[in-house]
Amino acid sequence: MRIGDAAAAAGLTPRALRYYEQQGLVTARRTPSGHREYDAEDVRRLRAVRELREAGLTVGDVRAFAHLLQTLPPEGVPDLIGTEPGAGRCAAAEEVARRRLAELDGHIARLTRLRARLAARLGEPDGRPGGRERAR
Q1: Burial profile 10-20: b = 16 or more Cβ within 10 angstroms, e = fewer
Q2: Would you place residue 133 in the very low, low, confident or very high pLDDT band (cuts 50, 70, 90)?
Q3: HEC profile of 93-111
Q4: Helix, strand or coil for residue 75?
Q5: Rounded distance, CA 65 to CA 123, Å?
Q6: N or C: which end of the chain has fewer CB within 10 A?
Q7: What is the mean pLDDT of residues 51-71?
Q8: Cα(115)–Cα(93) distance, rounded to whole angstroms?
């Protein structure tokens, strides 16, 4: 299938698909006329990439264990980073996901501190407007 069809089937835009190809997450075959061509396995891989990105992983995170995407069962991503200890989990993927989770926790803590400082400067120490009506 051509890039537009593959992107639609994976829930992506053609631009995102080209970017993932550029990042080495998928490899397109080329027709004799030079058009990109994808198959069902490529679409499955792209869906997994999309799901992992939606879960908060970066492209670099996914690239760290991209070689495992071809081994995903039809159920996909949940088996790569499972919720039950030891059940279908991949140590490399789990390590990357746990590192990313720690980074996100750090960002959230930093943003929470910044928000509290700004709210305090506005006279809203608890971050709420204190029940007063806001001007529109």
Answers
A1: bebeeebbbeb
A2: very low
A3: HHHHHHHHHHHHHHHHHHH
A4: coil
A5: 47
A6: C
A7: 88
A8: 32
